[in-house]
Amino acid sequence: RKLTTPLQELNDVVRRIGEGEYEHEPRAYPIAELHESARLVVGMGRDMGGTVRRIESAEQRARAHEERLAIVVAASGEGVWDWDITTGVVTRSERWKAILGDGADSGRSVPEVLRDRVHPDDRERVVASFDRCLHSGEVFDEEFRLRRVDGLYVWVRSVGRSVLGATGQPVRMVGAIADITERRAVEDELRRAKEHAEAGSR
């Protein structure tokens, strides 16, 4: 009230003069009260300035965090995906596109991609594991074959975890896939060599 009353009346005087009421005089306020109003205005300005600086600092920290995360993701060689279940929007990194092919699965949900692109021999296991983890909040961690845009299959390891809302229903799921085709090829070669050696020793 100490702040608003003098300012409101001053504004009213300006309005009246503008309308031609030149005889109107504002109520006189004690100088101490005007000083107090001025002090409050200055204090509000300082508070607002501090708030703005804190917001700017938070934004700078957020940008720095995003930049560090982008560097980590790029260095890991993994394709990151972020599924906002409430809106249905899926965001995929450039590495995801590189693994599966440019333009792969744009606008499709993660379950749709799994049911369509996972190799038939892996599909039942992977989909069941994904559905369980989606609704429980457990970590999803599976290795399986995924079909690229060009029709070829690549071995991937996919890891993800859902975020459950207040009602216990999933609202978001974030994960990543890594191309492990070369590793699986080496493992298959070693397994065949071992089987051949064991067969020769009989």
In short:
The protein is built from 6 helices and 5 strands. The protein has helices spanning 4-18, 31-76, 94-100, 110-117, 120-136, 181-200; strands at 79-84, 89-92, 139-147, 153-164, 170-179. The protein has a 5-stranded antiparallel β-sheet, with helices on both faces.
What's the arrangement of secondary structure elements?
Blueprint (H helix, E strand, L loop, with lengths): L3 H15 L12 H46 L2 E6 L4 E4 L1 H7 L9 H8 L2 H17 L2 E9 L5 E12 L5 E10 L1 H20 L2
Folded structure, characterized:
This protein is α+β, with helices and mostly antiparallel strands and 202 residues long. It is built from six helices and five strands; from the N terminus they run ααββαααβββα. The chain has helices spanning 4-18, 31-76, 94-100, 110-117, 120-136, 181-200, and strands at residues 79-84, 89-92, 139-147, 153-164, 170-179. A five-stranded antiparallel β-sheet has the order 2-1-5-4-3, sandwiched between helices. Residues 64-75 have low confidence and may be disordered.
Query: What series of H and E elements makes up the topology?
Result: HHEEHHHEEEH
Unreliably modeled segments: 64-75
User: How many helical elements?
Assistant: 6
Question: What overall geometry do the principal axes of the alpha carbons give?
Answer: elongated
**What's the arrangement of strands in the largest beta sheet?**
2-1-5-4-3
The helix content, as a percent range, equals: 55-70%
Share in β-strands: 15-25%
Distance between the termini: 99 Å
Q: What summary fits the major beta sheet?
A: 5 strands, antiparallel
Structural class: alpha+beta
Rg, rounded, reads 32 Å
| Total E-strand runs | 5
**How confident overall, as mean pLDDT?**
74
